[in-house]
Amino acid sequence: MKSEYMQQTVFVGPAFLAFFIVVLLPLCLGIYYSFTNWNGVSGSIEWIGFANFISIFTHDPDFIRSFLFTARFMLAVVVFSNVIGFALALILSKQLKSRNLLRTVFFMPNVLGGLLLGFIWQFIFVQSFPVLGEVTKMGVFQLSWLGTEATAFWALVIVSVWQGAGYYMVIYVAGLTNVPKDLIEAAAIDGAKNHQVLRHIILPLIMPAITVCLFLSVAWAFKSFDLNFSLTQGGPFKSSESIAMNIYNEAFKNNRFGLGTAKALVFFIAVSFITVLQVSITKKREVDM
Question: Taking the model in full, what pTM does it have?
Answer without folding.
Answer: 0.88
